[in-house]
Write a structure and sequence with these properties.
Helices cover about 0% and strands about 50% of the residues. By secondary structure, it is mainly beta. The strands form two sheets. It has a six-stranded mixed sheet with strand order 2-10-9-4-5-6, with no helix packed on it.
């Protein structure tokens, strides 16, 4: 079955960077669009970014555009999210998902931006 395991979260100061990874298995990763979502404390799930199967097209939530970069390595069945110039509003649990919808998704990795 679909398995998605996120990693790379942590605590970082405002302006800092983190790189999230999502290890995928149980499906044809190289043929799948992949998406990052996030959920901040007390808020609903929020779309962050999507990448098509070969990485030719990427789209971003406006507040993260220019700071976050989504990428993938189809040889390693891994999705990435490079996050730079992090802000307190980026604090959330980050999830990767197969396709463009939130399910199925992984268990998430916590990102906390705090001074």
């Amino acid at each position: 079955q679909v398995q998605l395991v996120e990693s790379g979260g942590g605590v970082v100061q405002p302006g800092g960077s983190l790189r999230l990874s999502c290890a995928a298995s149980g499906f044809d990763f190289s043929s799948s669009t992949m998406t990052w979502f996030r959920q901040a404390p007390g808020k609903g799930l929020e779309w962050v970014s999507t990448i098509t199967s070969r990485g030719l097209t990427t789209t971003y939530y406006e507040p993260v555009k220019g700071r976050f970069t989504i990428s993938r390595d189809n040889a390693k069945n891994t999705l990435y999210l490079q996050m730079n110039n992090l802000k307190s509003d980026d604090t959330a649990v980050y999830f990767c998902a197969k396709g463009s919808l939130p399910n199925p998704r992984g268990q998430g990795t916590q990102v906390t931006v705090s001074s």
